[in-house]
Amino acid sequence: MTNAHPAFRQAEKHFKNRATQALPALRDVPSTFCRPVLDFSRPDACEDDEVWRAGWWGRVYEPPVAGRRPRKAKDRVRGERPPLPNLEEEGVQVVALEDGRTGYVVAEGCVSIPRYYDAGAQEALLTASLAEFTRPPNPLSLDTHYALPENMFELYTSAPDTPVLPRHLELDEAERAARAEEAQRTAGTRPLIDTAPAFTMGIDEVKRRNASWTGDAMSLRASTKSVETLMREIRWANLGWVYQWSTKSYDFSTDTPIPFPPELAAQCREVVEIVPWDKVYASVKAEDTPDFGAWARDYEPDTGIVNFYQLNDTLMAHVDRSELDNSRPLVSISLGHAALFLLGSGDRADPPRPLILRSGDVLIMSGRGRQAYHGVPRILEDSLPAHLYPRENDSLTLAAVKRWISTARINVNARQVFPPGFKRPA
């Protein structure tokens, strides 16, 4: 019987499967729904490879049998690491970057740069992500429901049991009753959001659609929780222009965005500058090639999302369509545990390319690659690199950072909302 799911969905279902203790296979996955796994950052020696040590290469794909549950595997078999797939056969182009590193063109306009951030730079960006990017005025995923203290991470470091009250406790009885009645009235009627690309709608239409947005409804059932618990429940922090998750668009009601972190902006500009974009787009048709010639001079990230993943978290297949410039680079940085990243095309029916993204890796998406479906079906358990383990000489702050990342992953991504020279309407 033919599987009704498109290839991308089949790949997601395979890699996210937690029906047993056995890890999903990374090798010999059917080509009908998945291309061979690429892992550009793996160390030469197996003993230095946290992904191999965790047993992720221990199984080959076995087709499911109706009525029979897969075998459980308490003691993971490490197996033998397979060689990297033939890059030429896989259509992966190797490019020399301006700083001497090597990049891999894994899809049209998409460049993977393994090990871009060294251990010290990873620690610094992890610390910034947790201690700085979670501070006001940057919006957090929990702001709607909790009156978060400004110094969340400082409290996580020194007083993790500090209680945090839910916002609904600030309401009087009449207001709480009115909101409860409204929530009951609208339960199950949440409309689907039209995700027409912002670059086709234009800023005026985006602003018009957002004019009636009054914010997300706070939870009336949220309970008081400790800072320790809430730090584990943060799912995102917003940098720069504010992205409204409910409307899937940016808030252009203000004249200027929240300042984007200057050091992070400089790092993203640098990574875009070292890529030989003329080689990346050498085989792409002229009509599909973006105007990359100026990227080294005028790429200016002004918005970004810091994604905080716990080990059971996933990110379903999606396409980013909210920027007014749909071709300029999106810079994505991986920190902490490795992740299985699926990079597809503009059609979910096409088998996606799985990439293992490890701590310190950078992936740039540009051009038509910005309109490719992508997602994270699995965080690779037990794949934290050794340099992020606690050390006796760690500062209190770094010790807290390592405590948090010991069961987590962070992805920092930056992008540019407006094309250079864009004049916003009054």
Automatic annotation (TrEMBL):
Q: What is this protein called?
A: Fe2OG dioxygenase domain-containing protein
| Taxonomic superkingdom | Eukaryota
Instruction: Specify which residues bind Fe cation according to the UniProt entry for this protein.
Output: 318, 320, 374
The record's annotation in PROSITE patterns points to: FE2OG_OXY (PS51471)
Cofactor binding note: Binds 1 Fe(2+) ion per subunit.
Could you state a single Gene Ontology molecular function term? dioxygenase activity
Q: Name one Pfam family in it.
A: 2OG-FeII_Oxy_2
Show the GO cellular component annotation of the record.
cytoplasm; nucleus
Among SUPFAM superfamilies, the record links this protein to: Clavaminate synthase-like (SSF51197)
- All copies of the Fe2OG dioxygenase domain together span 300-412
Q: Which cofactor does it need?
A: Fe(2+)
Keywords in alphabetical order, please. Dioxygenase, Iron, Metal-binding, Oxidoreductase
